[in-house]
Design goal:
Helix content is 42%, strand content 8%. By secondary structure, it is mainly alpha-helical.
Length: 122
Amino acid sequence: MTEYITIAQVDSLLGSDWTTEDKKARAVLMANVWLTERLSVTFSTVPADVVQAGAEIAQLAASGGLYGAQDREVTSTSVTAGPVQSSKTFREGSKALSAAEAFALALIRPWANSGQIRLVRG
């Protein structure tokens, strides 16, 4: 795992009261893991947008909103009551995306892992 952010950086961006002291180390660890899963490059100096994304994810992790149980594995549901019908279908393993996670993904998009391998011919 790569260290993209530190507690000091998150405190600087969000203020020292973004969570309680006992949750900060684990939240930053989770944010670094989240970033490592999604970024396809290593940096000599981590860009400000990546640090900001990490701070957003750390705050989300501290509140228990990251790596939670996946409860949206419904593949199909249908309910009919008279003339009214309602149905929903979710991809297996899908989950609702929080505003913080969507914002962080937008911030890291230029460096995000696309699932492709860069090929350099020389």
